[in-house]
Amino acid sequence: MAGSVPMNTAKASVSRNQTTRSAGAVKWILIGTALLVLLWLIVLPLAVVITEALKKGWGVYVEAIRDPDALSALRLTLLVALITVPLNTIFGVAAAWAITKFRFRGKQLLVTLIDLPFAVSPVIGGLIYVLVYGAHGWFGPWLQAHDIKIIFALPGIILATMFVTFPFVARELIPLMEDQGQQEEEAAVTLGARGFRVFWKVTLPNIKWGLLYGIILCNARAMGEFGAVSVVSGHIRGETNTLPLHVEILYNEYQFSASFAAASLLLLLALVTLLLKGWFTRKSSH
Questions:
Q1: Cα separation, 180 vs 176, whole angstroms
Q2: Which tens digit of pLDDT belongs to each residue from 85-144?
Q3: d(Cα 269, Cα 265) in Å, to the nearest integer?
Q4: What are the residue boundaries of the ABC transmembrane type-1 domain, all occurrences included (predicted)?
């Protein structure tokens, strides 16, 4: 019996070593698979964009970037993001604050409506605005009578972009604010703070990194949106073409170098967004 204890210990040690080796093998298999998938789906396409953009030389690349239509598409893309992101930020903060801090009828309906753009195709979202504000839509005759352009103009592009991007800030803040609870706000109210003072002094400092993270995601989607904007823009060169639409038009016209050059601008914007996202993630984790 005395000799069986060391034997059992040895068996247990061997079993642990086998388990460790097996776990290590599984770990490296998973890491290798993930790296291969990332290489195939992300790194390789990005490399193709850069290679094709510079295929005919730096001069052709710069000329494509400096083309008036490309610059107009870039300005429109940035303008739409500059308008939609602050509006969706205000909505997202207000919705998250109401959902997590108050009790009211229709709360679950509000949450469902916030998630609606995740379930609806962006093309359908754009079509909805055409059916409402188009020439033959519900408000089309009235808008025409008052010379107000929404579809095939900047307002329609903004509305379509807002539709596909408005969940991002709210969806980032709702779980964060639910986890934080209401103790600090209740303490502030007990000390005499009211309304927006509680928000500015207590709630906002606690959610600032999550809020910035949601803004970054919203901005990335706003600049890269294609489906909904394609339906409502009209594809008017130099007027209603955003950068993604400009890339598609150039590619369909077999101007491949110019198309990939314009796509590289979107890639640059995406990389900046990715860097900011990583920085905010590190800050929020501290």
A1: 6
A2: 999 999 999 999 888 888 888 888 988 999 999 889 899 989 999 999 988 889 989 998
A3: 6
A4: 74-277
CA 141 – CA 131 distance, rounded (Å): 12
Phi, psi of 153 (to 5 degrees): -150, 175
Q: Which residues contact 43 (CB under 8 A, 6 or more apart)?
A: none
Q: Which two tokens stand for residue 62?
A: 């710069």
- Tokens, residue 276: 């900011």
Torsion of CA 29, 30, 32, 38, to 10 degrees: 160
Dihedral angle computed from the Cα positions of residues 55, 60, 65 and 67, in that order, rounded to the nearest 10 degrees: -140
C-alpha dihedral over 70, 72, 74, 78, to 10 degrees?
Answer: -170
State mean pLDDT over 24-32.
Answer: 82
More reliable by pLDDT, 119 or 14: 119
Helix extents (H) in the chain:
4-38, 44-53, 58-65, 68-101, 107-119, 122-133, 140-145, 154-165, 167-180, 183-190, 195-198, 204-224, 227-233, 243-252, 256-285
pLDDT at 273 over 60: yes
pTM: 0.82
Contact yes or no for 256/182 (Cβ under 8 A): no
CA terminus-to-terminus distance, the chain: 54
The token pair at 163 is 């539709």
Which tokens go with 26?
């599984």
Taking the C-alpha atoms of residue 275 and residue 111, their distance in angstroms, rounded to an integer, is: 30
Unique residue bearing structure tokens 């009828």: 105
